[in-house]
């Protein structure tokens, strides 16, 4: 059940998605504390995620996952690898 | 690699233990109900509904976390105490707020007994994310009642939630309610009255080594003490997983268990490096399953939110609308609050005039009128601004716009290491730092909040304006520079910019030194838009204003009286003959009036005013404050200030604008204001008695204005920082830091200017 970083060419960083694009969370990395917070908010591998929009200055980004919308900075979204679909 | 585990099997005696709760203990006090829930779930609205106006707000000991408690009457005539816990996504704490939530719910919070019942509020319209907290809470093994809030909205949106299924799954009452309309509250109150059996933990999967570690710790837990009525397995998991800065839970268990937990963590780190991820991943598996079974969307999701967001977070319109909102807030703080503040001012002085004659002339009258009543006035004048700011902030927060504003401003505020949430408190501080500092409670990160509090007083507040106006009017020539700019206006603009620059530099420095720490996760929920409930908004406004008056007000009042004393004592010997003369002049004025000699009466009256001003001047110059002004002269002489300005600096601690009236008193002008020509003239032409030269130069005026931009001279700010940080350390640090900065900057301006041959 431990998610492994994939070498699949499709895998992207979350922040690289275009506005409106959908993907599935593949892997989350980071220091234990930050990693735990992201997982608790539902950024669990296998979760469908949508990049709703970018803020007027390009950063942060608005995400939708598990029926909730979140604002997250691109520097933090870089910790999340996703598979677009 | 992982095996399914029934948690009920792990700790078979949970319910037994909970029922064994000491009955005598229960009977001696009111039942305590803790309200828990995620941010934006309507928890506070429900709390306000249940408790009505019977609330009290305090701080948890040693932290800045607010403790909101109230009493809720039940149908039987009994009353239960209700505690509104801070909103949290998880029981594994990552912030002081969340530490408090965990400690209260596990019964290790020192000033709060273990709650008899937890009322968990869930927003039915976005259940999935909120069930995480629910899973953890259920696992504690203490009685829980689930309030399924916003069921009316869920119905409208075509979202069906199977409450009976949730009830069967959790083994806890699940009651559909709407905190806004009040539906379902009767059933909720009834449930609060009953003895609720502890819930049934939901099955989840955990890796074998983690499961074994947790079981090992669970087996070691003592069967008495604060944690004994909880599910052992949950306590064990909490001990293993809660590795934050705070160790209140670790301190609650014997040292042998502490050592074992540390050893097991090291073992797990070696065996499965990602073991910490197993709890959330396991919980979400169960949640996904539960959501599939318990919810049904019968209408496609509406796009109302999307349509609003498309405008409010639009690349061009988003910032424009935000600026428009800010303009309204700014306007309200500066302009709309002003008539109310004037009315309060008028009311307070009228009160003084009304009460004054009833008291014997002399020290007692002066203490009551100039000390106490003026001090109360100083407190109450802040209330309109606080009320206006919190009216807007709670409207923005409850409607969901505040999160969008932070979303828009985040990139900009990141430049100084803060988040978008810091913008509104800082902007409000241009009107007054008091409401601005109070508004920082919308910033959830502790370090960011402290940084914002400490830099807020650098924003040039409205109390500095009279000082700037007096000094610019007296010393800055009214001429045009660079063809279009008006020099006084340019100077005023530079003063505002200087304050902002100082704030940026100090924020930058603080974030790299005293307030350095792990980079927090700036993930913020963008909640759905909702129509705010007036009730909640008004309760917030009332709470904030009330708290300010109670907590900061007492400090301000005390300091006002001390300042009054310092400015009135000791009485000068020269004053006596002057007072006698004043009496004589007043009598002759009365006589002249009585005899109809109007011209003579007017002349005598004018003389009396002149004498009164002289008495005030002489008394102040020789009072403790006056002596202190002279005492600090050597320290402020390098900045270009003499002892008269020293007195004004000291007295401006009551409020910055008091500087103007103090200068007027020092120059025997009575109560002049910043537009008074005579005060400007006096300042411009004042001579140094030792050299006979002009005492003040434009350079000194610039130095003094720079000092006013940077110095912390406002006791109300200090009092409110004390209240908001729940410590004396931070306000003291702020006073020292700001005043040191002010001294250095003024020194650089004055001495640098002299070297360049200015002044």
Automatic annotation (TrEMBL), chain B:
Mg(2+) binds at residues 48, 51-52. Residues 16-25 have a biased composition (Basic and acidic residues). Residues 575-602 form a coiled coil. Residues 1-28 are annotated as: Disordered. It is a multi-pass membrane protein. The keyword Transmembrane helix applies. Residues 30-198 form the FeoB-type G domain. The chain crosses the membrane at residues 316-337, 373-396, 416-438, 450-476, 488-510, 545-567, 699-721, 728-750. GO terms for cellular component: plasma membrane. It comes from the Bacteria. Gene3D superfamilies: P-loop containing nucleotide triphosphate hydrolases. PANTHER family: FE(2+) TRANSPORTER FEOB, FERROUS IRON TRANSPORT PROTEIN B. Belongs to the TRAFAC class TrmE-Era-EngA-EngB-Septin-like GTPase superfamily. FeoB GTPase (TC 9.A.8) family. Probable transporter of a GTP-driven Fe(2+) uptake system. This is Ferrous iron transport protein B. It comes from Eiseniibacteriota bacterium. The lineage of its organism: Bacteria, Candidatus Eiseniibacteriota.
């Amino acid at each position: 059940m431990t998610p492994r970083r994939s070498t699949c060419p499709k895998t992207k960083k979350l922040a690289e998605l275009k506005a409106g694009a959908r993907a599935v969370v593949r892997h989350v990395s980071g220091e234990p504390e930050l990693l735990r917070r992201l997982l608790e908010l539902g950024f669990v591998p296998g979760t469908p995620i949508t990049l709703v929009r970018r803020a007027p200055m390009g950063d942060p980004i608005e995400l939708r996952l598990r029926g909730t919308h979140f604002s997250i900075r691109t520097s933090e979204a870089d910790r999340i690898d996703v598979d677009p679909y | 690699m992982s095996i399914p585990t029934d948690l009920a099997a792990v700790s078979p005696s949970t319910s037994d233990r909970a029922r064994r709760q000491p009955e005598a203990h229960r009977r001696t006090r009111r039942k305590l109900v803790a309200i828990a829930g995620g941010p934006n779930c309507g928890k506070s609205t429900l709390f306000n509904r249940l408790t009505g106006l019977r609330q009290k707000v305090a701080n948890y000991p040693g932290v800045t976390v607010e403790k909101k408690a109230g009493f809720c009457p039940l149908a039987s005539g009994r009353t239960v105490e209700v505690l509104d816990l801070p909103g949290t996504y998880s029981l594994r704490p990552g912030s002081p707020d969340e530490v408090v939530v965990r400690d209260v719910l596990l019964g290790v919070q020192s000033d709060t007994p273990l709650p008899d019942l937890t009322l968990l509020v869930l927003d039915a319209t976005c259940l999935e994310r909120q069930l995480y907290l629910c899973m953890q809470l259920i696992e504690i093994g203490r009685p829980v009642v689930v309030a399924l809030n916003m069921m009316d909205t869920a119905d409208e949106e075509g979202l069906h939630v199977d409450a009976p299924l949730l009830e069967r799954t959790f083994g806890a009452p699940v009651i559909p309610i709407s905190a806004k309309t009040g539906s379902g509250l009767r059933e909720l109150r009834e449930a609060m009255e009953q003895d609720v059996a502890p819930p049934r933990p939901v099955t989840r999967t955990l890796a074998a080594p983690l499961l074994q570690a947790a079981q090992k710790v669970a087996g070691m837990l003592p069967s008495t003490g604060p944690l004994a009525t909880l599910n052992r397995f949950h306590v064990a998991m909490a001990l293993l997983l809660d590795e934050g800065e705070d160790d209140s839970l670790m301190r609650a268990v014997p040292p042998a268990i502490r050592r074992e937990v540390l050893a097991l963590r090291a073992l797990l780190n070696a065996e499965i490096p990602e073991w910490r991820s197993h709890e959330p991943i396991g919980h979400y598996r169960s949640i996904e399953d539960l959501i599939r079974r318990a919810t049904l969307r019968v209408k496609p999701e509406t796009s109302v939110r999307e349509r609003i967001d498309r405008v409010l977070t639009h690349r061009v319109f988003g910032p424009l609308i935000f600026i428009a909102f800010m303009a309204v807030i700014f306007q309200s703080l500066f302009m709309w609050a002003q008539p109310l503040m004037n009315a309060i001012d008028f009311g307070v002085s009228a009160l003084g005039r009304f009460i004054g004659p009833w008291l014997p002339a002399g020290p007692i009258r002066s203490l009551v009128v100039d000390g106490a009543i003026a001090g109360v006035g100083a407190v109450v004048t802040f209330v309109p601004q606080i009320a206006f700011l919190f009216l807007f902030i709670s409207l923005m927060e409850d409607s969901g716009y505040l999160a969008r504003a932070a979303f828009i401003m985040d990139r900009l505020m990141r430049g100084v290491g803060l988040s978008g949430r810091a913008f509104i408190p800082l902007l409000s501080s241009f009107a007054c730092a008091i409401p601005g500092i109070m508004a920082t409670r919308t910033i959830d990160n502790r370090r960011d909040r402290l940084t914002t509090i400490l830099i807020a007083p650098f924003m040039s507040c409205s109390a500095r304006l009279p000082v700037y106006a007096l000094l610019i009017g007296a010393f800055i020539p009214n001429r045009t520079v660079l063809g279009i700019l008006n020099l006084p206006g340019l100077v005023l603009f530079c003063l505002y910019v200087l304050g902002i620059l100082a704030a940026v530099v100090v924020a930058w420095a603080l974030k790299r030194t005293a307030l350095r720490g792990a980079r927090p996760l700036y993930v913020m929920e963008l909640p759905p838009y909702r129509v705010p409930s007036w009730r909640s908004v008004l309760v917030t406004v009332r709470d904030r204003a009330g708290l300010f008056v109670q907590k900061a007000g007492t400090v301000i009042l005390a300091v006002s009286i001390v300042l009054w004393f310092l400015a009135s004592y000791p009485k000068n010997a020269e004053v006596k003959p002057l007072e006698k003369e004043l009496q004589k002049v007043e009598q002759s004025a009365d006589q002249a009036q009585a005899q109809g000699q109007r011209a003579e009466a007017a002349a005598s009256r004018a003389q009396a005013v002149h004498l009164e001003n002289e008495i005030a001047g002489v008394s102040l110059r020789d009072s403790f404050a006056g002596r202190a002004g002279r005492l600090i002269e050597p320290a402020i002489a390098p900045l270009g200030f003499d002892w008269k300005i020293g007195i004004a600096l000291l007295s401006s601690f009551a409020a910055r604008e008091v500087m103007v009236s103090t200068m007027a008193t020092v120059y025997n002008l009575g109560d002049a204001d910043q537009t008074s020509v005579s005060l400007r003239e006096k300042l411009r032409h004042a001579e140094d008695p030792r050299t006979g030269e002009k005492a003040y130069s434009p350079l000194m005026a610039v130095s003094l204005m720079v000092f006013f931009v940077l110095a912390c001279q406002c006791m109300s700010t200090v009092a409110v920082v004390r209240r908001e940080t729940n410590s004396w350390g931070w306000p003291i640090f702020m006073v020292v830091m700001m005043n040191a900065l002010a001294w250095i900057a003024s020194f650089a301006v004055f001495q640098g200017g002299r070297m360049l041959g200015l002044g």
